[in-house]
Design goal:
Length: 254
């Protein structure tokens, strides 16, 4: 497939994990790719995977509006237009409402929720010109919740309703907004969790497909939502979770 030939796509948090998988998928489908991340070293390493003629790598802290606004401006300067933004950058500190630190709470809301809002705000003027689209990375933790992830749950729940809000406000003007809601995905962020065999076994009881996701699994759905194949899909927060949502998190009955 070559669905994104001559189209420009920004992916935040693109140096690793789901973001890197998403960037690879767009590159494979012919996009002019703008990757950004707060980790400069990882960003430079990731950039080597892409053709320099059709790729721009930019350092960006998405919690700083000026920085993501600059990414949008540089994207348009280099490639003349913007068609898609994937607001993917995120963090996931642990902690309940009693023990999450205020610093972790503030950083999580600033990155995972405000950063998504800033990305949408910065990109919208250009997307309105091209009748483009927004895909946000939410989570099944934003549709329900998970134990010990108070700040993450709150931020991702905000992303879910922010996505709906943008879909309502801009749909008639030609800009679609959707989100993907992954469950456990094998990334650097989940490495410690996946090394806990007891925890993984417990999670597998809730997962009908019987395996954790790979970044490519999420990337395929992001690419679909960004493409003309999804031209009548708007305001959807799509679980990409192997059936966790369908099972209501319950293990199979004996």
């Amino acid at each position: 497939m070559n669905r994104f030939k001559d189209k420009t796509v920004i992916v935040t948090g693109a140096a690793s994990g789901i973001g890197r998988g998403v960037a690879k998928r767009f590159a494979e489908e012919g996009a002019n790719l703008v990757i950004c991340d707060i980790d400069q070293a990882k960003l430079e390493h990731a950039a080597r995977e892409f053709e320099p003629e059709s790729m721009l790598a930019l350092h960006c802290d998405v919690s700083n509006f000026g920085q993501i606004e600059s990414v949008v401006k540089e994207a348009v300067k280099r490639f003349e237009a913007l068609h898609v933004i994937v607001n993917n950058a995120g963090v996931a500190p642990e902690g309940s409402a009693l023990d999450v630190s205020f610093d972790d709470w503030n950083k999580t809301i600033a990155t995972n929720l405000t950063g998504v809002f800033f990305g949408c705000r910065a990109a919208s003027p250009e997307l309105l010109k091209t009748r483009g689209c927004i895909v946000n990375t939410a989570s099944v933790s934003g549709l329900g919740a998970d134990w010990g992830l108070c700040a993450y749950n709150a931020a991702k729940g905000g992303v879910v309703n922010l996505t709906r809000s943008i879909a309502l406000d801009f749909g008639r003007r030609g800009v679609r907004a959707n989100s993907v809601c992954p469950s456990l995905t094998e990334t650097g962020m989940t490495k410690d969790m996946l090394e806990d065999e007891a925890l993984v076994a417990k999670f597998m009881e809730r997962l009908p497909l019987g395996r954790v996701a790979q970044p490519a699994d999420i990337a395929a759905v992001v690419a679909f939502l960004s493409s003309d194949d999804a031209r009548f899909v708007n305001g959807v927060n799509m679980p990409v979770d192997g059936g966790v949502t369908a099972s209501n998190g319950q293990p199979p009955q004996e």
